[in-house]
């Protein structure tokens, strides 16, 4: 009987020990979770304040490299690209237009398409330099735009001379938005076929 009583007491003590250990683990996890949660919230709040401070202090800056360097803080690196774009959206000369594309953006688009058309028809040794770009704006440019251009070297061309071609920019309704006339100074090493 004494042996069974000792085993009962031993089982009860073991059961109480397990309960106490589990309770201790639960309290430790709650305490650690509270500390971890407060740390995470603190870091998030500090990052938010840092972002707000940077947005406020750099809002009128027109120097992209200065802004980029100021955003080189460890807590802010995650949001660096978004903050940079937000701060500099008013610096972009093409964003000043309300509801339509800026005229310079259309000229750049025409030059790019015209350059691709011209340079894709030339041989590796040939040279083409844009010497004149004239854009006639016919309509406000909104939405998706497409540009087309055909460039052909004249049959009688040899040596070095000026060649003119057009780039036509149209909107999604196929209305002509702008017509660009590009003049290239071509220097052909051999006569193009």
How are the SSEs ordered, and which strands pair?
Blueprint: H1 2-57, H2 64-70, H3 80-88, H4 103-121, E1 127-137, E2 145-149, E3 160-171, E4 176-187
Antiparallel strand pairs: 1-4, 2-3, 3-4
Organism: Mortierella isabellina (Filamentous fungus)
Transmembrane segments: 35-56
InterPro entries: DUF4442 (IPR027961), HotDog_dom_sf (IPR029069)
What does this structure look like?
- The mean pLDDT is 81.
- The longest helix has 56 residues, at 2-57.
- The protein is of the alpha+beta class and 193 residues long.
- The protein folds into 2 domains: 2-91, no CATH class; 103-187, Hotdog Thioesterase (Thiol Ester Dehydrase, Chain A).
- 10% of the residues are buried.
- The protein contains 4 helices and 4 strands.
- The chain is 47% helix and 21% strand.
- It has a 4-stranded antiparallel β-sheet with strand order 1-4-3-2, covered by helices on one side.
Question: How many domains would you count in the coordinates?
Answer: 2
Record the strand order, biggest sheet: 1-4-3-2
Q: Structural class, please?
A: alpha+beta
Specify the helix fraction band.
Answer: 40-55%
What is the CA-CA span between the terminal residues?
115 Å
* SS element count, helices: 4
pLDDT < 50 stretches = none
Rg, nearest Å: 35 Å
Mean pLDDT across the residues is 81
Biggest sheet record: 4 strands, antiparallel
What share of residues are in beta strands?
A: 15-25%
Q: Secondary-structure element order, as H and E?
A: HHHHEEEE
Which outline best applies?
Answer: elongated
Keywords: Membrane, Transmembrane, Transmembrane helix
InterPro entries: DUF4442, HotDog_dom_sf
Protein name: Thioesterase domain-containing protein
Pfam families: DUF4442 (PF14539)
């Amino acid at each position: 009987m004494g042996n069974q009583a000792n085993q009962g007491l031993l089982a009860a003590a073991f059961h109480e020990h397990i309960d106490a250990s589990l309770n201790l683990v639960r309290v430790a996890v709650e305490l650690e979770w509270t500390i971890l949660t407060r740390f995470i919230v603190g870091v998030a709040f500090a990052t938010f304040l840092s972002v707000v401070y940077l947005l406020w202090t750099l809002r009128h800056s027109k120097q992209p490299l200065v802004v980029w360097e100021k955003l080189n803080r460890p807590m802010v690196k995650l949001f660096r690209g978004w903050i940079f774009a937000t701060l500099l959206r008013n610096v972009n000369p093409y964003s000043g237009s309300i509801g339509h594309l800026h005229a310079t953006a259309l000229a750049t688009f025409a030059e790019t398409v015209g350059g691709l058309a011209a340079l894709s028809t030339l041989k590796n040794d040939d040279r083409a330099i844009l010497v004149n770009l004239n854009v006639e704006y016919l309509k406000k440019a909104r939405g998706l735009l497409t540009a087309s251009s055909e460039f052909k070297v004249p049959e009688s061309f040899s040596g070095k001379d000026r060649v003119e071609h057009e780039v036509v920019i149209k909107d999604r309704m196929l209305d002509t938005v702008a017509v660009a006339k590009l003049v290239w100074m071509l220097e052909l090493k051999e006569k193009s076929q």
